[in-house]
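step=encode ok
step=design start
structure_in=
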């Protein structure tokens, strides 16, 4: 396996640049992946570092995640940041305004996924606003079966797109993605007019990388695998190290 480049110094420089707008994915980026979505753990110091970084950039820092906004808020409490959840279906701007996109009816896909999980206990179904995720991390041998079944379910439900992430298949609205969520933030204060940097780890983040680089920003891919991102970090631990270093200088008061 080829060694993953380490662009830590470049990322630290981007985080330090006064004109940056900073966007982070959550799972696999700020936190390590876990066997189940509720099993992730936020390392000590990350919330404080995010708070200092957001302050340095005048509030131009947001999380862009596949998780619902409420879950991100619970993970970061007491810190409240601008957040896009469910790949942009839900979004809370820096001024607190909440936006919710129209979504297709996913009830048939949800029923299909739940029926499959009832037969194979290693599968986990996650129902979000307008989306259904089928996790097979606890049963990796079922990947092809899950892909086949979720593909059939999504094909029968207009307006949905199937994303194949890290040990998860997610049916989400085709009209929303992380690139669109970042674009919406970039049209608003305090993000407007800044240069965006977005760090993420999975296929769901590729739309975000493409958008920020299209407008002159930088995408940062965390981990291995093909990506459009121009910068690379080996792991969430490396990203956290950069984030904590950034919280010391020049942000420390």
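sequence_out=
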């Amino acid at each position: 396996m080829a060694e993953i480049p380490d662009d830590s110094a470049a990322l630290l420089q981007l985080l330090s640049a006064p004109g940056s707008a900073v966007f982070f994915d959550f799972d696999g980026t700020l936190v390590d992946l876990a066997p189940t979505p509720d099993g992730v753990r936020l390392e000590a110091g990350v919330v404080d570092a995010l708070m200092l970084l957001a302050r340095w950039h005048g509030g131009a820092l947001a999380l862009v995640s596949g998780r619902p906004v409420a879950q991100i808020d619970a993970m970061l409490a007491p810190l409240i940041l601008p957040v896009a959840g469910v790949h942009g279906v839900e979004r809370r701007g820096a001024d607190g305004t909440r936006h919710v996109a129209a979504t297709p009816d996913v009830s048939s896909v949800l029923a299909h996924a739940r029926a499959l999980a009832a037969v194979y206990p290693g599968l986990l179904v996650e129902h979000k606003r307008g989306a259904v995720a089928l996790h097979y991390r606890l049963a990796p041998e079922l990947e092809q079966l899950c892909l086949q079944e979720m593909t059939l379910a999504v094909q029968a439900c207009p307006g949905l797109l199937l994303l194949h992430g890290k040990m998860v298949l997610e049916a989400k609205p085709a009209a929303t993605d992380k690139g669109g969520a970042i674009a919406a933030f970039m049209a608003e204060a305090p993000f407007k007019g800044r240069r965006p940097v977005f760090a993420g780890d999975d296929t769901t983040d590729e739309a975000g990388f493409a958008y920020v680089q299209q407008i002159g920003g930088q995408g940062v891919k965390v981990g291995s695998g093909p990506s459009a991102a121009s910068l690379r970090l080996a792991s969430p631990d490396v990203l956290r190290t950069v984030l904590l270093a950034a919280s010391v200088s020049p942000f420390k008061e």
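step=design ok
step=annotate ok -> The domain at 8-100+176-248 is CATH 3.40.50.1000 (Rossmann fold).
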